Amino acid sequence: MDPAAIGVRIASGVVTPLIKKLFVRPGPGAGLVAEPVRIDALVSFRGERRDLAEQDVRRLVTALVRQAVRTGERPLPHDEEEAVGHALTRTLLALGTLTLTDVEAVSLGHEELAARLHRAGGDPTRDLSADATHLYHRLLDTACLHVLNFFTQRSAFVARTLVEQSRRQAELIAKVDELIARDPLPGARDVAFEQRYLAYIAKKHGKLTIFGIDLADSPGKWPLDAAYLSLTATAHGRHLGDVRVDDDWLQVFEARLDPTPRPADEALATHDRVLLRGEAGSGKTTLIQWLAVCAARPDLGENAARMGYLHDRVPFVLPLRTLTRHGERLPAPKDFLTAVGSPLAGTQPDGWEARVLTDARALVLVDGIDEVPDAERARTRAWLADLIEAYPGNRWLVTSRPSAVREDWLTDEDFTELTLAPMSGADVTAFIRRWHTAAATGAPDEDQALRAYEAQLLEAVRTKPDLGLLATNPLMCGLVCALHRDRRGFLPLGRKDLYTAALSMLLIRRDRERHMAVPELREEPQLQLLQRLAYWLIRNGRTAMDRTRAVTIIGDALPAVPELAALGDAEAVYTHFLHRSGLLREPGPGTVEFVHRTFQDFLGARAAVEEGDFGVLAGHAADDQWEDVIRMAVAQARPRERAELLGDLLARGDSYAADSPARTRAHLLAAACLEHAAELAPAVRGEVERRTAELIPPRTPDSARALGAVGPMVLDLLPSLADLNDDEARNAAIAATHIHSDAAIPLLTRYADDPRDGVRRQLMWGWSRFDCRSYADGVISKLDDGRTNFTLTTDEQVEELLRLGLHPKLLDVRRSVSPEAVSPLLVACEPTYLVLSCSLTRLSPAARHALRHLKTLGLSIDGLADVPPGLSLPGVTELMLYPAGRDAELGDVEWVPACFPHLQRMHVPTSWADQARALPPHLTLFSY
Prior knowledge:
Elements: H1 12-20, H2 54-70, H3 78-93, H4 102-108, H5 110-120, H6 130-153, H7 163-182, H8 186-204, E1 207-209, E2 221-223, H9 224-227, E3 232-234, H10 247-257, E4 262-263, H11 267-270, E5 273-277, H12 284-296, H13 304-307, E6 314-319, H14 320-323, H15 336-339, H16 352-358, E7 362-367, H17 377-390, E8 395-400, E9 416-420, H18 425-438, H19 444-463, H20 465-470, H21 474-486, H22 495-513, H23 523-539, E10 544-546, H24 547-557, H25 570-581, E11 584-588, E12 591-594, H26 597-611, H27 614-619, H28 627-636, H29 639-654, H30 661-673, H31 682-693, H32 701-709, H33 726-737, H34 745-751, H35 757-765, H36 772-778, E13 790-792, H37 795-803, E14 810-813, H38 819-829, E15 833-836, H39 845-849, E16 856-861, E17 878-883, H40 895-899, E18 905-908, H41 913-916, E19 924-927
Parallel strand pairs: 5-8, 5-9, 6-7, 7-8, 13-14, 14-15, 15-16, 16-17, 17-18, 18-19
Antiparallel strand pairs: 1-2, 3-4, 3-9, 10-12, 11-12
Helix pairs in contact: 1-2, 1-6, 2-3, 3-6, 4-6, 5-6, 6-7, 8-12, 18-19, 18-21, 21-22, 23-24, 23-26, 24-25, 26-28, 28-29, 28-30, 29-30, 29-31, 30-31, 32-33, 33-35, 37-38
């Protein structure tokens, strides 16, 4: 048979991942099944534990249709494409009704299987045009060809008489692939390049540098899918206040969405545009790598369920530090690959990037707004706005340090703002274990010692508060692991001492451990030159410079640092730093930067202190790019210099109007610097604390969060709530719950005696930021008053609730809580108000029975598949439905009055409102 006559011109690398999703994964075993397996037992959209719903199958088929049209098939109107998708979905769903075995199906061949499916689906092509029917049949043939190939590859496929058919099946698919490669249609050129591009992205970003791993014989990089630690992010619920129906509805809706951590890598599943804020080293760039790799790989393994929403997305990773390093114009789509130095630049078909964006298939990952000079950020925002307006429908993630841009910076472009949360205790434990696994060398004695260090460090992080405060993000946690190993179990306790020790480790001990034949150099001369490079970057608002400029700066400084003459001229010294220090890297030809912004800031601060540039530092108090520089300058200054710098900071703040944000920022920055001031004149410390006290109680939620970020020193300044009005009391609670230290728990325990709902809700939402059991004993145990909505985000929280014998009637249970933990919780509490993010079908029968007292129910659903047949909850009078994913559909609503016979009010997304209007007219409908 001529391969050209078979199906659509889509390579098997595109079709196979889609088809495989239609079938369950083979279970464990040796493949010794004696009998063939019926097809209806293999499909993934039947049975009690379905992996796919009908909507999921429709999405897979839609992707197949889209690929076919893109590879050069006869074009169809958009509504005809949808009709083909519906028809093919209906046909493929008939796989679950066939009584054939997999062996019998292969015996039939793909054409006869396609015919039987077509008949079983009831001839869904009756209303299709001739062109649409033609595409339908070609797609069905192609799908059946790959379905049969899937059957022949299953471990349980043991029919020896079908070996020849299996071989022919594989040959046929290989010939089709070869034909496509030899004679591509115009659209296939895009697909062929995309496959090369996605493979390149998966390889380029599929490795993660783990700080300190390369000290000895361990690899410097680790596979991303093994090393990646799932990050969490929070959103400020107050952004959603405009979706209220009345005051009560506002409280309910905010309680559902206000800041409890959620997986950051799932943010784009429910929001097309996200501005993600995070401190230096918090994992923003690692998250971008992860998203790019998930979009680029066709098979995500165990992450397929979570990250499948990125299927068929083409990632563009755009680090702004690279795009703006020489002050160039920000690139148009056709220049994306060239701007980031991709080796594939120039090989893509003309206009490919624009076609990807026009088809709304792009995943645009813009990293590092904070690394753009402040004067250029307006231009960057305009560039983003123009791209979004020209190419709607794509997904956009923009990252920044928290204070780099104002809170509503991208609001006009409909961006949702999220903030990366500090690592929890469980995150730190997981990171330490993975770091030590990656550092293993294979030598039994060394690895045994490494495991001993791991156990020692885990205990130290748990029992030493100062150390726990340092290990709050991946960079700092990696530093702690590396230094703990390097120092044989002994660690510095302060941030300044930690950086100092890390620099010493990199500049001196790293080459000694690796037995490098380099001249013996003292640490101080090397720091002198490196800090000049860092200070030039900071003064010029850059994070990267030309290599020639770096060599010039080193050359100008060399006469004053004769010890480095042993290395040679300025070019040789630069090369030494680049290849031996572990602090510099070249992200592209002719460009150099520090491996992490944190080291640049620390070394730049050292240079500023030595230069006595305290006025310069204070003059940049309102510039977010200088915030860490100023903190580290206070840490490295001598007592008299420290007093001078803090005095200048206070004076700078005083120079602004009393209600100016710049005044607040300068004074809060001075307060934050106190934790780095080991010795300071009492009068200066008193002045800083007096200015801070003027900001207490905080007037707004934003100022409350900023106050909490100052750290534990604020605990002594926060007042009792008794004399505060409702807003002031809630803001004080916000500030206290944003102090990332368990030292805040005693104060929060006292706050839990306050009866006001706003305070108590905030204390409930703050649980995830502290040690789970300690917070439960001190705070949560006081909140079960019948009014406070209990928002639960982990199984551990559920366990603590049950341990304390609390049975709250108002529950908001997030997706991160397992169904196994939800069921006993519902049985114990028998709630009257419930927001639930897991499917009702996954609850135990006893848990469903416990819902008989419900009056208000919120469900995060993906259509009728999430509601058990025959379920009846006559007590529910108010129903809130939220989409489980971006593409979730409400579907047929006939189940609503059957399940909730006394329903009075219903809240649905605006996109579901038309379907919901088919409900009985007595029902009051609200859309949001």
